[in-house]
């Protein structure tokens, strides 16, 4: 949902801004722009429709000098993605330029007001309204830019992470945030500002995460100066950045998505490190240790999440109910926040989010707190808004996920779900020590089994080649593999634009079966031992209607492989663990189809990795 980068310091700003934008491109990529203040105090603004590379091509031969600048990569909300609507936006006087991630909800009324006061607008954006509102305040109140921003933001309804440069101030950037993320990197006589830490990695280890409703003066030679929009001083809290350069580069893979798929054995191991104890057959989750009682005696555990994180939560609900016998609900955060849910202080709400910035999930957290529930988080990004808004939580430790289609974040979330379910079961005494030991040993072996799955996945590309031109596809699974079917279908539609749906296999006869003919391939996840026979019947039903069958089966499978047109094997495992394995070939299948169709795998159209708007 838009990425912002800004720089002020002793180096040339342009290359730093462009590299930063490229690292943030996963947040939006329909247009990009940069504003640079040069040594002659000229404010040069360049914008281009399309990717950051289009912006680079468009500035050839132009003045890109300057040691201070702001830059933006956009995911359109107000106004179509074109050059005019791209950021940065200039104020009417041309004295200042602004970049903005978020949405100003009351921009129409503010725009009308400003028009009455003589301001004119070139674009359809809410952002151009904001910069002119700031200019109007500055001119009418005779205050400096910092004050003008602070006052103006009191009139704004919505979300923002903004950075502004002003002519005559070659050593100063004013920034502010509410709802959209912002981090400031503190270097040697230089500052970096960005939507997340990726543009800062490799440049400095010292960072400050800006809080909601804070305005910051970033001035060379001075400490960060922060006040809230209500004029209360805030002390910056400087932290060490926990991210390295390797984690945000492709490491020889053609796409981030494939790199991230192949990282999964290591990531799952990292997620379990120091938490799963195969020597004592126990689990410890330090982050939530003070909330275990609440979880154990909760009337309901309620997961709130969106997209892939919702699928991981659904796996979690099956696991916790099955193993720990605690009631679990799974809610789309976007529905939860508006449907007046019945939540009491006896419930525990768990927000699940890779980015930790999803606007609907943040709103759901706020609502759950209003109801008095304990709110925990399962997040990937350390220091993210959700990790800070929750009472406590569990980090997934998947490292930065750059590919827009989530892969390793999903498996790490599911790994956390296993550990949570096993820990609660341990505390509640719902499992015999022998069975618990068996499960913990199995979870410990999963990274090797994921590696095996990857090592035996070469033929998935051949299967993909056969189906790359289909228009529709169905994915079927039962129990814990039903969310895997949903996730497999989501991967395919996200990156290849083929219409795909996931279903619990037994639901097939209640509708989807009407779709089956020779042109409808169906992926079956046929690994669960206790529903195996039933899934076989579903496979038979598709076969007798000439549908094509791709079956994900266990290594030891005998029957399903005889019925399917194509077979993908995963290692044998205790059934409930198959989501961590069956997901892998479905990611690879979607990946190859998308590549063969010439789609942009890492940055699929219309999507963004971090959805910081409703
Ligand atoms: C977007 C992303 C998905 C992600 C969802 C929820 O739609 O493209 O990959 O699953 O947001 O994001 P979160 O960061 O909260 O997990």
Radius of gyration: 25 Å
Small molecules held by this entry: 6-O-phosphono-alpha-D-glucopyranose
Total DSSP E strands: 27
Q: What is the tally of helical segments?
A: 19
Shape: globular
Domain module tally: 3
> Structural class from helices and strands?
alpha/beta
List the helices and strands and how they pair.
Layout: E1 3-8, H1 13-24, E2 31-37, E3 43-49, H2 52-58, E4 68-74, E5 89-90, E6 96-104, H3 107-116, H4 126-141, H5 145-153, E7 158-166, E8 172-178, E9 183-186, E10 191-194, E11 206-209, E12 214-219, E13 225-228, E14 233-234, E15 238-240, H6 256-262, H7 264-272, E16 276-277, E17 282-283, H8 292-296, E18 301-305, H9 307-324, E19 328-332, H10 333-336, E20 348-353, H11 359-370, E21 374-379, H12 385-389, E22 392-395, H13 408-428, H14 433-455, H15 458-467, E23 472-477, H16 481-496, E24 499-504, E25 521-526, H17 532-543, E26 548-554, H18 559-563, E27 566-570, H19 578-596
Parallel strand pairs: 18-19, 18-20, 20-21, 21-22, 23-24, 23-25, 25-26, 26-27
Antiparallel strand pairs: 1-4, 1-10, 2-3, 2-4, 5-6, 6-7, 7-8, 8-12, 9-10, 9-11, 11-15, 12-13, 13-14, 16-17
Helix pairs in contact: 3-4, 4-5, 7-13, 7-14, 9-13, 9-16, 13-14, 14-19, 15-19, 16-19
Description:
The chain has 614 residues and is an alpha/beta fold. It has 3 domains: 3-247, 4-Layer Sandwich (Glutamine Phosphoribosylpyrophosphate, subunit 1, domain 1), CATH 3.60.20.10; 251-455, Glucose-6-phosphate isomerase like protein, domain 1 (Rossmann fold), CATH 3.40.50; 457-604, Glucose-6-phosphate isomerase like protein, domain 1 (Rossmann fold, 3-Layer(aba) Sandwich). It contains 19 helices and 27 strands. The longest helix has 23 residues, at 433-455. The mean pLDDT is 94. Bound molecules: 6-O-phosphono-alpha-D-glucopyranose (G6P). 6-O-phosphono-alpha-D-glucopyranose binds next to helix 9.
